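Q: I'm writing a short methods note and want an example of a predicted protein-small molecule complex. Could you take the sequence and the SMILES for magnesium ion and return the bound structure as tokens? Please keep the output block clean; save any remarks for afterwards.
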Amino acid sequence: MNYRIKKISIIPIQIELNEPFVISKGPLTHARNTVVKIFLEEGQYGIGECCPYRTIHGETQDGTVAAGKDLAQLLIGQDVREIRQCIKIIDKSLAGNASIKCAFDMALYDLNAKLVELPLYRYLQGDNSKKIYTDMTVSLLPVEEMVKRAVKFKEDGFPVIKVKLGDRPSAKDVERIAAIRKAIGMELPIRIDANQGWNYLEAKRALQSLEAYNIEHCEAPLPCQNFIDIQKLNQESPIPIMGDESVFSHQDAYRMLAVDGIQLINIKLGKAGGICHAMKIASVAQAAGVYCQVGSFSETRVGISALVHFSKAWDNIIYYDLDSPLMQSEDPVIGGMVYHNDWEVTVDDSPGHGADFDPEFLKKFPSFDIQ
Ligand SMILES: [Mg+2]
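A: Understood, no commentary inside the block.
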């Protein structure tokens, strides 16, 4: 069998969201994702996906397509079994661009697991008995709109609600959480995410005031470049701080943990550049005895399937934010991860990550083929 990469297809897709997804950086109305398919000569392929989030990655969909064509040229003819060598090639040729690199990495892992006929979790030495339940996220909106959604998500049976904050002054965010708690009670766990919206003073005030509301943890209270004030905040905050935008890479994880700037890490394949580098972040966290969450941008069930398989391989990943497909107006994915009524998320033993796009859906979009 010929294991050399024969062809790579890059397909920009678009899916409308059920309603705009709003964070402190602004609203998102559509998932504009980029799909990468890596083919061998005999037609076997692996599939990956990324969701470039322009306000977080600094990458756009057009940019990922352009960069993807460039990276694809470098991988044609490479032995697909040499995952780390392939990733070394793309990392060496282009700094940053974690989003599009993630789509390539995901396709490489999917194809390799398929070649040995293993589900991806097993290829990554994971354990499928590990239970995973997703939260559901409330957008940053006027307080009554947020309350309405939180009540609905409680009725829907979600085991945890995540609430987007990061408004200034942060007293408005405290009002939001107070109103949500009044409506849904104190027991259902709430996690919050400021998406870098506060400064040190606003964050300190908010986190101290929110102590009374049973908050599990807080993602990204400060701008990600500010790894000075985050150290003070981490010391003073009654609510554990989780690094998200401040931890793209394993080097970021090392820095943020070494300066005692965070207590928890949110791992996203789309920030790390895929599974290969995300495993390094999980390892750094494990060495430091730090728990992790896995999260997403606006990936479909293809990207989330890969993330679920990855999560099965790391017992220090204990929080799950896997709700992005639930916000999309259509589900164009065949196979892959499944949501259950109690919001448990499972994957089966299909080879690879088990998910693929409906060919009819992909036909609606251009495919750029490099060979
Ligand atoms: Mg976050």
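A: Remarks, as requested: The first helix runs from residue 54 to 57. The chain has 14 helices and 16 strands.
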